[in-house]
Amino acid sequence: METNRNLLRRNAEKRVKELKGYYSHIIIFVIVNGILYLLKTGVLNSLLPEAFPKESYYYDWINANILIWGLILLVHTLILFRHKFTFFKKWEERQIQKYMDEDRSKVDKYK
To answer: Which positions, given as ranges, span the membrane (predicted)?
Structure first.
C-alpha cells in the first residue's frame, strides 16, 4: 500500500516539475521575444548605445525567431498535455482493430 502511495507521489512530483518547466518556457518566450520585438520596432532605440545598429532591417530575423520558437513551444505544449488529447489514442485503437480484422479475414479465407 505504501509503495503505491510513493509511486503516486513520484508521478505527481514529475508532473509538477514538467508544468514548472513549461511555465518557465512560456515566461522566457514572452520576455525575450517581447524585448526583441520592442528592439525591432524602435521603441528601445533611446536605450541603445550610439554604435548599435538602429535600422529595422537589421532585425528582420526576429519574426523568424518568434515563429520558430512559437512552434517549439507548441510542440512542448502537445507533449505536456498528450494525455488530454484522446484523438490519438482512439485513432491508434481503430488502426489496431482494423489490422486485426484484416488478419482475421485472411486467416478465415484459408480455412
So the answer is: 21-39, 59-81
Evaluate whether 90 touches 39 at the Cβ level (below 8 Å): no
Q: Are 26 and 58 in contact (CB under 8 A)?
A: no
For position 70, what pLDDT does the model report?
A: 95
Measure the CA–CA gap between 97 and 74, rounded to whole angstroms.
Answer: 31
| Mean pLDDT, residues 59-81 | 92
Rounded Cα distance between 80 and 77, Å, is 5
Greater pLDDT, 92 or 61: 61
What string of H, E and C letters represents the secondary structure of 10-61? HHHHHHHHHHHHHHHHHHHHHHHHHHHHHHHHCCCHHHCCCCCCCCHHHHCH
- Give the angle subtended at the CA of 11 by the CAs of 2 and 96, to the nearest 5°: 115
Please report, for the chain, the start and end positions of each structural domain, with discontinuous segments joined by +.
2-80, 85-111
Query: Rounded to 5 degrees, what angle do the CA atoms 60, 26, 75 make?
Result: 85
C-alpha cell at 60: 528582420
